[in-house]
Design a protein that fits this description.
There is one protein chain. This protein is of the alpha+beta class and 297 residues long. It folds into two domains: 82 residues, 434 Repressor (Amino-terminal Domain) (Orthogonal Bundle); 174 residues, Beta-Lactamase, CATH 3.30.450. Helix content is 42%, strand content 12%. The protein is built from 13 helices and six strands. The protein has a six-stranded antiparallel sheet. Strand 1 and strand 2 form a beta hairpin. The longest helix is centred in the middle third of the chain and has 16 residues. The two termini are 38 Å apart.
């Protein structure tokens, strides 16, 4: 046995890589949990740890499921978790695309196919989320489904974590719920932001013309929102990049921030980050929310 390595972790560091028999879902879950530390996922380590890796309670918190459910999965008493649960666990455990596919297969599910909108967050982006909690930062899929966010993002926008509400989608919030305008206003007019959002989605459409879920999503938006339909039917396509926004926060009032959108290489996920200069009223308001977010954790 190699020293300083959890007993259940394969020697290669990949799930099930050294075994001739495929690992069960529970074995994969336990192995992946044991190879992460609290620091890897942005959590404080507390108390005496009898075993390496994350506690079940910590994984449950990150994935938005109960501790009892994690235990039953690892013990094999539950063998068929839902696709949503598997995706949440894979993100919480910072699995690679290969290991995410293996975890899906172990649950009896078809892995996410190429040419479909991926909800996989690369490990490097996971590290950014864990190590940069003092920035209002969130990660989105190509269809603008939110995949993860930092505590400061949640404090700034008074929004739940993805674990608490996995169905947050920026397009739905903008064109169906009409809730985003109450939270933030783009410099110039709300239409500036709406155009940027739709044109970015139109840009992604070329990559997902065989993705039935993506096609159904855009068709539903066109049916339910005349504003979206008008912008979509213009046929314009452009990457959503940067703009200035005023965020309407109930604790500190209006905060004027720069909003930048970054695309991750070899991935279709987007990182959205808000920032301001180091001095001034807006920086002070952000600092206040930063302290509030830290206390909430």
């Amino acid at each position: 046995m190699l020293p300083n390595r959890p007993q259940n972790l394969p020697a290669t560091g990949r799930l099930g890589a050294m075994s001739s028999e495929p690992l069960s879902f529970g074995e994969m879950l336990r192995s992946a949990r044991e190879r992460l530390t609290p620091a890897d996922v942005g959590l404080e380590s507390f108390g005496r740890r009898r075993a390496a890796g994350l506690r079940r309670e910590e994984l449950a918190q990150l994935a938005g499921v109960s501790v009892d459910y994690i235990m039953r999965l690892e013990q094999g008493r539950v063998r068929t978790p839902s696709r949503q649960v598997v995706a949440s666990l894979a993100r919480a455990l910072q699995l690679s695309r290969t290991d995410t596919a293996l975890l899906h297969r172990a649950a009896g599910l078809t892995p996410p196919a190429s040419g479909t909108v991926s909800h996989h967050i690369p490990a490097g982006v996971q590290r950014m989320l864990a190590r940069m909690p003092d920035l209002p930062l969130a990660v989105f899929a190509a269809d603008w489904t939110q995949l993860a966010s930092t505590p400061l993002w949640q404090a700034l926008f008074q929004a739940p974590s993805v674990a608490a509400d996995p169905n947050q989608n920026l397009l739905v919030q903008t064109f169906i719920d009409n809730s985003i305008g109450k939270v933030a206003t783009a410099q110039g007019a709300p239409e500036t932001f709406e155009r940027a959002l739709v044109w970015d989605l139109r840009r992604s459409a070329a990559d997902y013309h065989h993705d039935s879920r993506f096609q159904a999503f855009t068709a539903d938006l066109r049916t339910r929102s005349p504003r979206f339909a008008t912008l979509w039917d213009q046929g314009r396509a452009a990457a959503h990049q940067s703009m200035v926004k005023t965020v309407h926060n109930p604790l500190v009032g209006d905060v004027v921030l720069d909003c930048d959108v970054l695309v991750v290489p070899d991935s279709d996920v987007k990182i959205v980050v808000y920032s301001t200069s180091q001095q001034g009223t807006d920086a002070e308001k952000l600092d206040f929310l930063r302290v509030s977010a830290t206390r909430a954790i």
